[in-house]
Design goal:
The structure holds two protein chains of two kinds. In chain A, 73% of the residues lie in helices and 8% in strands. By secondary structure, chain A is an alpha+beta fold. In chain A, helix 2 packs antiparallel against helix 7, helix 7 runs parallel beside helix 10 and helix 9 runs antiparallel to helix 10. The two termini of chain A are 18 Å apart. Chain B contains seven helices and ten strands. Helix content of chain B is 32%, strand content 25%. The relative contact order of chain B is 0.19. Chain B has a domain of 64 residues. Chain B is α/β, with parallel strands linked by helices. The chains are: A alpha+beta, B alpha/beta.
């Protein structure tokens, strides 16, 4: 294989069809960016789930004037429920410590909150977090219970938002991928046609299929590689802007967030997917439109 | 070197066969004219030898290989043993004379030092020394055909197929091309040339195979173009 020759043929092809090359790079870039974005959000959903499922899912807040027999009755009731895994008691002072920790970024709020204002509570961990409604209704009307907060419910909205974002990105990604596949198909067909004189001679003098097809495939996969690299840069932007900036300021410490590792882990697959999709499309097109 | 045995070729678009039960044997080192009117099957003959088409019936041997048993990926190796020249030259307009000839070696993966050595040799052989850096459109028709012959011969094929190589050239220029093909033939290369040009056939006095409506109507060593003339 004389790579210099194949590469120079490829460079000629890329320049000859510059506008088409740019169009290919752009569509692959955007398609892969959405695909990668969907994948990152999927990881974000999993990170949130793992974090949450390992934690308290229901808080049973007690009234200010709760008596000891009432406390014991509520605890017994909770522990008797088959859906309940563990029950922790959180006193007023413990509640204040957690409160201070959770809102340490807002010192004014901490300063203005009286430690005795925070209610004592039972924190309940469920065997199956989805069964929170059964547990909540079992203790809701007991004397001494002020309020049952099912944190899973608040989380459900976040999950819904994330899943919506992920699915939306996936739909857009698939649509644009389809567009880029059609574009590549057309590009390769045109390139094969505009170089039929060269390929005809190549065939005649006994060039192998590999030699005849390699410049076309390399041309398209190079475009895909550039698109993949651009999409990867966008992954960093998504992590920095949407996750670190947007989500963190909206939800603060109640969620865990994907790290840079997730971004680095996504990039190779993204680039590989781009090259593979482009390469396979180009190869398929050549079998049809480049008689060898 | 080339042997056709009871070969029939029918194209899907036509009911009449382009070649009809043709049996021909061409020895190594022969110079053979393939004559006949347009549509008599000359081009089909050449395309079958190149394995650009498959025969509908019959068998073809080229350089010791039976073509129907030759797998797809071995076809390039077959074509490297066959040089081809056409009426319309088929040069690459954006490459120089030297690049056009070098192209044939580059695409079969020959090393660069080999190319640098053999391309000037073959250009010298075809009489184009000094015109290496010209573009095809700066050359006369005869010179362009010499480039095409150089490209076909640069890999030293065992067989040279020429499909109406003088069809676009004036008689004087044609004589020059024929001398060149004769020279190539004398290096031991088997030459098969399809042509309409009766003057050339008559003056060369080589073997003539005449096709008419896909059938061999004459096979004569040291022949002329036609009897009834």
């Amino acid at each position: 294989m004389r790579w210099r020759f194949v590469l120079s043929e490829m460079a000629i092809g890329l320049r000859r069809n510059l506008s088409m090359t740019i169009a290919t790079i752009l569509t692959i870039w955007i398609a892969l960016a959405f695909l990668g974005g969907a994948w990152l959000f999927n990881q974000q959903i999993n990170a949130t789930k793992d974090y949450w499922f390992g934690k308290i899912q229901i808080s049973v807040f007690l009234t200010k004037d709760v008596t000891q027999p009432e406390r014991d009755a509520i605890r017994q009731q909770l522990e008797a429920l088959p859906q309940v895994d563990k029950v922790f008691y959180e006193s007023k002072s413990e509640a204040y410590i957690h409160f201070k920790d959770q809102f340490k970024s807002v010192p004014a709020l901490v300063k203005n909150t009286d430690p005795s204002a925070l209610p004592e509570s039972y924190r309940v961990k469920l065997k199956d977090p989805k069964k929170f409604a059964i547990v909540a209704s079992a203790v809701q009307n007991m004397p001494g219970v002020d309020q049952v907060a099912a944190e899973a419910q608040a989380l459900k909205k976040i999950f819904k938002l994330f899943s919506g974002l992920r699915n939306g990105m996936l739909v857009v990604a698939i649509a644009i991928l389809l567009a880029s596949i059609l574009l590549i198909f057309n590009n390769v067909r045109l390139a094969a046609f505009s170089r039929r004189r060269e390929t005809g001679i190549m065939r005649l003098v006994g060039a192998s299929d590999l030699y005849i097809q390699a410049p076309f495939i390399l041309e398209i996969t190079t475009s895909a590689l550039i698109g993949g690299i651009l999409a990867s840069l966008l992954m960093f932007a998504i992590k920095a802007v949407i996750v670190d900036h947007g989500l963190k300021s909206a939800f603060g410490g109640i969620l865990t967030y994907i790290g840079w590792g997730a971004v680095w882990g996504t990039i190779p697959y993204l680039i590989l997917a781009g090259i593979l999709i482009a390469g396979v499309t180009a190869f398929g097109t050549l079998q049809r439109y480049l008689r060898v | 070197m080339i042997r056709l045995q009871s070969v029939t070729k029918t194209y899907p678009s036509s009911s009449r066969p382009a070649l009809d039960d043709v049996s021909v044997e061409i020895e190594k080192g022969e110079f053979v004219f393939l004559v006949g009117q347009s549509g008599s099957g000359k081009s089909t003959f050449l395309r079958l030898v190149l394995k650009e088409e498959k025969p509908s019936r019959g068998q073809i041997w080229v350089a010791g290989k039976e073509l129907s048993r030759l797998s797809h990926w071995k076809v390039p190796a077959l074509r490297r043993q066959i040089g081809t020249v056409f009426q319309d030259f088929r040069l690459l307009p954006n490459k120089t004379v030297r690049e056009n000839v070098a192209f044939a070696l580059e695409v079969i993966g020959k090393p660069r030092h080999t190319i640098a050595q053999v391309v000037p040799e073959v250009l010298d052989l075809v009489g184009l020394a000094g015109k290496e850096e010209r573009m095809p459109d700066e050359l006369s028709g005869g010179e362009q055909q010499r480039v095409a012959v150089a490209r076909a011969f640069v890999n030293r094929p065992m067989i040279l197929l020429a499909d109406e190589p003088t069809g676009n050239l004036d008689p004087t220029t044609s004589v020059g091309i024929m001398r060149l093909l004769d020279r190539i033939n004398r290096t031991g290369t088997t030459v098969v040339m399809a042509t309409h040009d009766s003057h050339i056939v008559d003056s060369m006095r080589r073997r003539v195979i005449e096709l008419e409506s896909g059938k061999v109507t004459r096979d004569q060593s040291r022949g002329v173009y036609g009897y009834a003339r």
